[in-house]
Design goal:
This protein has 308 residues and is an alpha/beta fold. It has helices spanning 28-40, 56-68, 94-108, 127-139, 153-162, 180-186, 203-209, 236-249, 253-262, 277-284, 293-302, and strands at 3-4, 13-14, 16-19, 45-47, 76-81, 83-84, 89-90, 113-118, 143-149, 167-173, 213-217, 269-272. It binds NADP nicotinamide-adenine-dinucleotide phosphate.
Length: 308
C-alpha cells in the first residue's frame, strides 16, 4: 500500500480509504469480512458520516468492527457531521457538532474518533461555535484530528480565524469523470468551455499551499452517483485507454482509474466505496502503479477533455 503522511495530522496513513456509506446493505458478518479484508490489504482508514443511512452505516461499522478483533489503535476511524436530512438542513452549531460526535461514537462503539470532518457547509455557520465544539472534543479526547468536506478556501480561512486545531483534510468529489477540481486550471480564462469556470475558488492549490490533504470521494462514479464509469458504454474512449494502460501494468481498468488519482502530486487519498472484497483488492493494486506523465494526460483527455 502507498502510504502518506498528513502534515500536522496522522502519519503513515494509506492512500486508499474505505468509505462505509454503502455498508448498511451488508449483514454484520459480511461487514466484518469487508473490514478485515480492507485491513489485510493495508486499508486501515475508514470513512463514515452521521447521515449515511440515518446513522445505520456507523452502527453497522461499529457492530462489525468489534467482531473482527482488530485492535482499535491499528485503524484510523473518521466520521463526518453537519448534514441533517431528517431536519432538511445543515447544522454546524456547537450543540449539533457535539451531539453528532457523541452519537457517532455511540453508534460506532468507540471511545474516540481519529478524525472528525464537517460534512457540507452550513450556510448559517458561526466559526466561533465550531471552535468551541472542537476545543471540547479535543480536550475530552473524543477526537484527535479535524477537517472539512466540500469546503472552499474562503470558508476554510474563516474557520481558521477561530478554530485552534489544524484542519488537515478536505473531502471533495474527484475522479477521471468528475475532474472539476483540476479542470479550471487547464482552461483558465477560456471562454469556449464551461470547464474554465472556477467552481471551488482554487481549492486544489489552496490545499497544497496550506498542507491540507484532499480525500477524493466517489472516485469511480460519474455524475452525482450515476454509476461506475469503468465498463460503462457511455465512456467508450476512456474505457479503451484504461484497458490499454491496464494491460501494460497487468492490473484492472478500475485500478488504473484509481492510480490516476494517486499520481497527482497533491498526494490525494482515494475513498473507495466498494463493499466487494475482490473489488477492493483490485483497487489496491493501483498503489503499485505509478503512471507516466503521458499516461496520466492520455487518460484525462480520453475522459472528454482537450488541451486548449
Ligand atoms: N463527503 C461527501 O460529500 C461524500 C459524498 C459521497 C461519498 N462520500 C464517501 O466516499 C465513499 C465512496 O463513495 P462511492 O461509494 O460513491 O465510491 P465509488 O468507489 O466511486 O463507487 C462505489 C460503487 O461502485 C461500484 N462498483 C461497480 N463496479 C466496480 C468495480 N469494478 N470496482 C469497484 N467498485 C465498483 C461499487 O459496487 P460494489 O460494492 O459491488 O463493488 C459501489 O456500489 C463513500 O463510502 C463515502 O465514505 C463522501
Amino acid at each position: 500500500m502507498k502510504m502518506i503522511n498528513v502534515t500536522r495530522g496522522p502519519q503513515n496513513v494509506p492512500a486508499i480509504i474505505l468509505g462505509c456509506m454503502r455498508m448498511p446493505a451488508l449483514s454484520v458478518k459480511d461487514a466484518a469480512g469487508v473490514i478485515q479484508n480492507a485491513v489485510d490489504l493495508g486499508v486501515n482508514f475508514f470513512d463514515n458520516a452521521t447521515c449515511y443511512d440515518k446513522g445505520h452505516a456507523e452502527e453497522r461499522f461499529g457492530d462489525a468492527f468489534v467482531q473482527t478483533g482488530i485492535r482499535r489503535e491499528d485503524v484510523i476511524i473518521q466520521s463526518k457531521c453537519g448534514i441533517c436530512p431528517e431536519r432538511g438542513e445543515f447544522d454546524w452549531s456547537k450543540e449539533n457538532i457535539l451531539s453528532s460526535a457523541e452519537d457517532s461514537l455511540r453508534r460506532m462503539r468507540l471511545d474516540y474518533m481519529d478524525v472528525l470532518l464537517l460534512h457540507r457547509p452550513d450556510l448559517l455557520f458561526e466559526p466561533e461555535e465550531v471552535a468551541e465544539a472542537f476545543d471540547e472534543l479535543e480536550k475530552s479526547g473524543k477526537v484527535r484530528w479535524f477537517g472539512v468536506s466540500n469546503v472552499p478556501p474562503m470558508q476554510f480561512e474563516l474557520l481558521k480565524k477561530y478554530v485552534r486545531q489544524p484542519l488537515v483534510f478536505d473531502q471533495v468529489q474527484f475522479s477521471l469523470e468528475q475532474s472539476q477540481l483540476i479542470d479550471q486550471t487547464l482552461y483558465m480564462n477560456n471562454l469556449t468551455t464551461e470547464r474554465s469556470i472556477d467552481r471551488d475558488n482554487g481549492l486544489l492549490d489552496y490545499c497544497r499551499l496550506n498542507e491540507v490533504t484532499i480525500q477524493a470521494w466517489s472516485p469511480l462514479q460519474y455524475g452525482f452517483f450515476k454509476g461506475c464509469f469503468v465498463d460503462s458504454p457511455e465512456f467508450p474512449e476512456l474505457n479503451a485507454v484504461l484497458a490499454e494502460i491496464a494491460d501494460k501494468y497487468g492490473v484492472s481498468k478500475t485500478a488504473i482509474a484509481i492510480a490516476w488519482i494517486l499520481r497527482h502530486p497533491a498526494k490525494i487519498q482515494a475513498i473507495a466505496g466498494t463493499m466487494n472484497p475482490e473489488h477492493l483488492k483490485d483497487i489496491c493494486s493501483a498503489a503499485e502503479v505509478t503512471l507516466t506523465r503521458h499516461e496520466w494526460y492520455r487518460l484525462y483527455l480520453a475522459s472528454g477533455k482537450f488541451l486548449p
